[in-house]
Model the fold of this input.
Amino acid sequence: MKLRALFPYLLIAVAAVAIDQWVKRIVENYMALHEQIDLLPFLALYHTRNTGIAFSLLAGFGDVGLILVALAVIAVVLALAWRTSGGQVLARAGFALVVGGAIGNLIDRVAYGYVIDYILFHTPVWSFAIFNLADAFITIGAGLVLLQEFVDWRRGRGGREPEPPSGR
Done:
């Protein structure tokens, strides 16, 4: 695989980190902790801090443990991305979003010891876990990887490059 071919995906990852960190700085600087700003009847900004991973899992694992977990996940995703073929554009974009989101949350964890969360979907009787753009990028990225797998399966390739014509 040529490194030049990875440049667009590097840009996706860098953009994901930049956008995530920019919005987190705005939330951290202009919203009080636990402040809620309703945007729509079902959507609000709600400033909170997550000391664990998704849904506050592993909150007692400690900063160093969670940083090591994040680094391991990033390494595994990069290894998987490296193995994708040039035709697997959705998977490569998905891996870039996952890496960008993971790095965005890793920056928070290293700098603050927690991750800044701020997106809240809710109704009067129910609310979803509070998350951030990095989490959304990770989820969308994983969805793109799965979509690529489905597309490849439907094409009968299973992620492999098409076989060259045999010349017969």
Summary: The two ends are 29 Å apart (CA to CA).
